[in-house]
């Protein structure tokens, strides 16, 4: 089934966070397999998430002097 790009892009953050339904995640996977622009956006978002995961945690304010 073909879904519009704007709908798929709305679902991407939910998929990235792991909270999208199985049907929504499947729709995103199928769409990015055929849409180069959405696949590019998905790849960029995944890179941002990877960088954020590698960043050190902010200091705990309770431990500030």
Which SSEs are present, and which pair or pack?
Blueprint: H1 5-17, H2 22-32, H3 36-54
What is the CA-based Rg, rounded? 16 Å
Helix content: 55-70%
SS strand fraction:
under 5%
Low-confidence stretches: none
**SSE order in H/E notation?**
HHH
Query: First CA to last CA: what distance?
Result: 57 Å
Number of domains: 1
Counted beta strands: 0
**Biggest pleated sheet:** none
Mean pLDDT: 86
Number of H- or I-type helical stretches: 3
Shape: elongated
User: Which class do the helix and strand fractions yield?
Assistant: mainly alpha
What does this structure look like?
This protein has helices at about 5-15, 20-30, 35-55. It has one domain (about 5-55). The model has no long low-confidence stretch (mean pLDDT about 85). With about 60 residues, the protein is an all-alpha fold.
Summarize the structure.
The protein is an all-alpha fold and 65 residues long.
What are the main properties of this structure?
single chain, mainly alpha, 3 helices, about 0% strand, elongated
